[in-house]
Amino acid sequence: MDERPAVIAARILHGGVARGNVLTLTEPLSFWGAFDPRSGEIIDIHHPQKGTCISGTILLMRETRGSGTAPGGMAEALRLGTAPAGVILIEPDINLAIGAMVAETLYGRSCPVLSVGEDDYAKLAQEAALEITAGGLITPLPRAVPRA
Amino acid sequence: MTAIGIALDDRDRASLDGAHGPAMQFAMRLVLAAAEILGARSLVSVTFAHIDACFYSGEAHVDFAQYLLAHGARLAIPAWTNNGVVSLADPDIRPEASDPQTVMGARKLMQLYERLGCKPVWTCAPYQLPGGPRYGDHIVAGESNAVSFYNSVIGARTNKYGDYLDVACALIGKAPYAGLHLDEERRGDILIRTDAIPDDWKNDNIFYHLLGHYAGQFSGRRIPVISGLPPQKTMDSLKALSAAAATSGGVAMWHAQGITPEAKTLDHAFQGGAPGAILELTSALLAKARQDLTSAADGPLDMVALGTPHFSLTEFERLMPFIDGRRLKPGLAFYISTSRHVRHEAATRGWLGDLEKFGATVIADTCTYYSPAVRRCRGHIMTNSAKWAYYAPGMLGVEVSFGSLAECVESAVRGEVWRDPRLWTNGLP
């Protein structure tokens, strides 16, 4: 048997490279109002993971919660250095991709935003840490990575 | 064609290649990225934009607007501005000292969009101003109530465009040809019947806030078709329905049989298909909606907030007889949010003087629910807006009572919540 972990090819919504520890959200998150770009924490009192810091993580969530101001939340988080390292969704989302594109142009900082199918999402959620390549390939890392 | 198979004309191609400068190239890249995510095969020309990116949510918004201005951005179409976080017309209602970074950032952002050439209307209800889009126009909007109203009541076509993409589309004059721009995506999904509701109720504006709240909760992102509504003398109740359904459920489009332009009949609204579900609205469901929108027990009030979305001229007209010769309880605050355009119209009719005598403050360019725009915006607040009632407890940390316009005025005079027996004993628990 080949012991190397399986590589998953994702759909690229906004491309980039990243590595980080996996944080799986149990409920969708809005990047405006429910997340504070100054601290990187989830602040929505209705979110079960309120208080969790998403900065530097490979953030897994099935979908986002819609807000027209969400691109600003992503761009502001990238500006302040509190954004996730990468985002992996099931439902493609325009807002996070646009926010990441804008931050890349304005600040030279980016965050890949990818989408994968249900089965791949379930596999990725079991991992401790992931690496994302510019081509949208997702590779599990053998252990958690130290925070940058 | 682009590498991703989206058809481009010569002008689009030139923008993408940088011939119109870096800002236009960037805008084109944003529009194409969105088109690719949506699976669009082409772009559609748009004739109007309502810009939401002028609403300050951090310095990234300011940096984006400055980048555009510094790199040759030019609007291709008329673009009107949504509410600001602060008011340019009434700077005193949120002085700089209250939160210097936000207030100064918000002001600067609004000025940048004026410099970009946007029409500075600063309203979340742009459809209340003359000269806007018409039936069948493809447009760009982001403010949720405006998206819902334009699609449903006007029959103009827009998806819910997020910040930055709204501006990019206005610069290019095109949007991804997908979603609610397409005929088949505008088909009704579910039917909500209102036959069990008494006609008295359907003639009061409060019904449409409650109906919208319920329709949004039940529909999520599906398109509801509502039957059994009476003819409308004004747009105000359709505005209430649009805002409430967009708030509780993200509804970007709805139909009302015999009232909205794409629902002459049920068959028309469902485009020949059948509803995926049929619901019967009951008095009990309306009463539950009122409870959902009320976090406080009846009792002493600190403030009344009207005008979410922005108060219209016909709403002012309806309000005036209620306040005639009356005075609100001393110590209470009474705010009405509107656009500078409508406030000017109200002023020319002499209504602002009467409102001042009553004790009301009419503010323009902004709203009371998302920022402490006004002093004394704390404690127990009554509103006639489902949208305000939905957001304010989380945004402002206040307690809310939801009621009709008449209840709001009477409660303001008494200084405590008053319930209209005509409404709540007439078949409603």
Give a brief description.
The complex is a heterodimer of chains A (148) and B (429). In chain A, 22% of the residues lie in helices and 24% in strands. Chain A has 148 residues and is α/β, with parallel strands linked by helices.
What is the 3D form of chain A? globular
Arithmetic mean pLDDT of chain B: 94
Uncertain runs of chain A: none
Distance between the termini of chain B: 61 Å
Count of the separate structural domains of chain B: 3
Care to describe what's here?
- The complex is a heterodimer of chains A (148) and B (429).
- Chain A is α/β, with parallel strands linked by helices and 148 residues long.
- Chain A has one domain (8-141): Glucose Oxidase, domain 1, CATH 3.50.30.10.
- Chain A is built from 3 helices and 10 strands.
- The longest helix of chain A is centred in the C-terminal third of the chain and has 14 residues, at 94-107.
- Chain B is built from 17 helices and 14 strands.
- In chain B, helix 2 crosses helix 6 and helix 8 (205-219) packs across helix 11.
- The longest helix of chain B is centred in the first third of the chain and has 17 residues, at 22-38.
- The N and C termini of chain B lie far apart (61 Å).
Give the secondary structure arrangement, pairings included.
The complex is a heterodimer of chains A (148) and B (429).
Chain A: E1 8-9, E2 11-14, E3 18-24, E4 35-36, E5 41-42, E6 58-60, H1 70-80, E7 86-89, H2 94-107, E8 113-115, H3 118-124, E9 129-132, E10 137-141
Helix pairs in contact in A: 1-2
Chain B: H1 10-17, H2 22-38, E1 43-45, E2 49-51, H3 59-70, E3 79-81, H4 100-115, E4 140-141, H5 144-154, H6 165-172, E5 174-176, E6 190-193, H7 199-202, H8 205-219, E7 224-227, H9 236-249, E8 255-256, H10 266-269, E9 278-280, H11 283-292, E10 303-311, H12 313-323, E11 333-338, H13 340-348, H14 351-358, E12 361-364, E13 380-383, H15 386-396, E14 399-402, H16 405-414, H17 421-424
Parallel strand pairs in B: 2-3, 2-4, 6-7, 6-9, 7-8, 10-11, 10-13, 11-12, 13-14
Antiparallel strand pairs in B: 1-5
Helix pairs in contact in B: 1-2, 2-6, 3-4, 5-9, 8-9, 8-11, 9-15
